[in-house]
Write a structure and sequence with these properties.
Elements (H helix, E strand, L loop, with lengths): L1 H11 L18 H12 L3 H12 L27 H14 L1 H12 L9
Helix pairs in contact: 1-3, 2-3, 4-5
Length: 120
């Protein structure tokens, strides 16, 4: 992915001598691939590259095996709602502490057989 390419680019330029990283690709290039490479060319900010790559390729499944594509959350958008995560985490921790039985019911309702992945 772009994170690996960004990391490789950084490793090439670590010495005291000026260096260049040249990336080659085989045409034809999809619009999505072109957008991702343009992002890599225009930015040296690893966090921005990672965030934009997530927007372009999708997050995949949080509790499954797919690593790309749209995340099937029913309410939230992981990128758009990132600033809400600390508050949600706090509410989830409080629910687990105050009403563990209800938390278990919610996990079963939303995750079903994939519930075992929620233990991580």
């Amino acid at each position: 992915g772009l994170a690996q390419l960004h990391q490789l680019r950084g490793r090439v330029g670590r010495g005291s001598t000026a260096s260049n990283c040249v990336l080659l690709y085989q045409p034809p290039l999809s619009a999505n691939a072109r957008a991702r490479l343009t992002l890599l060319r225009e930015s040296n900010d690893g966090f921005r590259i990672a965030e934009m790559d997530l927007k372009l390729r999708g997050a995949g499944e949080m509790l499954g095996t797919r690593q790309t594509g749209l995340l099937a959350l029913r309410v939230a958008d992981l990128v758009r709602d990132a600033d809400l995560l600390p508050m949600v985490r706090e509410l989830a921790d409080r629910l687990l502490q105050d009403d563990h039985g209800r938390a278990e019911l919610i996990l079963q309702r939303w995750f079903g057989s994939a519930r075992r992945y929620a233990q991580a």
